[in-house]
Design goal:
2 domains, Rossmann fold, alpha/beta, 7-stranded parallel sheet, 15 helices, 13 strands, 44% helix, elongated
Length: 382
């Protein structure tokens, strides 16, 4: 198949999943074309089956805000026509699904039929999508998609709740990781850099937005370090970074916290950790938690959104109510206090991660692609 993938090229989960999906499809022999405004951060290698098409937005003085959706639609028309794509797979509803619909209509007027699949990742539904000004467009674009997927059952239900006029069937295909990329990371030497006295090492990875509640991470860590020697690594950057720095001074924990900023591939950092903290107000899936578990790192998380579908309470880690830092700290201490307990949780976390390996998830996407193309063929034959 010749597949066009449209995604945001940034560090966010939707862009990471879209890129890893494209790479895996290319390894299976499919031809994959990424279409976005910048090279995706995880697109760190190219092969004979991988292609990148940049969407260039001109700085035209008439516009205060450049019309990216229109430029993207035109680029999709161009790539579909000249690369002879079989289908488009767009990640994130805004503005990719509506741009794909517009491109589909333009191409149809030229006798070219191209189906498109929309994958919903989270904030396009639970945050941005709640803005009433977007609701009609999102509803229309989803209903016009040839197939729709969501990354968790929780997100599927949220979509139907937030957009009652959506009639399209939503298929749940969970996020995934490639377990091969998490093997063979020797963490012993690196860990000494951050925990020289063999302290327990906790880690948090996010984009530091308010919804991530990173201040709760610091409060949980503060309670843990009062019971046992511990260090905390923060990976990422974002609007809450200043508040985090202020809070660590108030708690007098700055000397025990190391901020590493944005990291394209988190596997090596995760490999040195003992425990992952994810205190988000909501997560449509919790890809960061899955990446931690693939690195044999148990997870302390909230029980919101799709997290209970990923992190199994009492097995791969523990779930707590949003904001309940006392319970999170208690659970963290339980995992970390005894070596034997920590070892068992690490093993359990990896076993849970196996369920989401790309080898198990990729066939779901391939089957969906084939189904959409077969339906398209049947329509054309009628």
């Amino acid at each position: 198949m010749k597949i066009g993938i449209v995604c945001y090229p940034t560090f966010g989960g939707s862009g990471v999943v879209a890129t890893e999906l494209g790479k895996a499809l290319a390894e299976k022999g499919h031809q994959v074309h990424f279409i976005t405004y910048s090279q995706p951060v995880r697109l760190d290698f190219f092969s004979g089956n991988l292609f990148y098409h940049e969407v260039s937005v001109s700085d035209y003085p008439l516009f205060d805000y450049q019309p990216y959706e229109l430029v993207l639609s035109s680029k999709l028309v161009d790539v579909v026509k000249y690369e002879k794509l079989d289908l488009l797979h767009v990640h994130y509803a805004i503005p990719h699904a509506s741009a794909a619909y517009m491109a589909k209509q333009i191409l149809a007027s030229q006798g070219i039929n191209i189906p498109f699949i929309t994958t919903l990742h989270g904030t396009d539904i639970t945050l941005v999508g709640k803005d009433p000004s977007f609701e009609p467009v999102i509803t229309f674009a989803i209903n016009q998609s040839d197939a729709v997927t969501s990354v968790s059952e929780s997100l599927k239900q949220d979509t139907y709740t937030n957009f009652p006029d959506i009639k399209k069937e939503i298929h749940v295909i969970p996020n995934f990781i490639n377990l091969e990329e998490y093997k063979n990371h020797d963490s012993r030497c690196q860990k000494k850099m951050y925990a020289p006295l063999n302290e327990r090492l906790l880690i948090h990875v996010s984009n530091f937005r308010k919804v991530k509640r990173v201040e709760d991470v610091l409060r949980v860590f503060d309670k843990v370090r009062k019971v046992m020697p511990a260090k905390l690594i923060l990976v990422g950057d974002g609007p809450e970074k200043g508040n985090i720095e202020k809070l660590c001074r108030e708690l007098d924990t700055c000397n025990d916290i190391k901020s590493l900023g944005k990291i394209v591939n988190p596997e090596q950092v995760l490999a040195i950790a003992d425990l992952f903290l994810l205190t988000s107000e909501t997560e449509s899936f919790g890809l960061a938690a899955l990446e931690a578990m693939a690195s044999h790192v148990p997870v302390i998380s909230t029980n919101s959104g799709g997290l209970p579908e990923v992190n199994v309470h009492g097995y791969s880690g523990y779930l707590s109510n949003v904001g309940d830092v006392e319970d999170m700290a208690k659970n963290a201490i339980h995992i970390l206090k005894e070596d034997a307990t920590l070892k068992q949780f690490k093993e359990n976390a990896y076993e849970q991660a196996k369920k989401f390996d790309i080898a198990a998830i990729l066939p779901m996407y391939e089957a969906l692609y084939e189904s959409v193309l077969n339906k398209q063929k049947q329509k054309l034959e009628v």
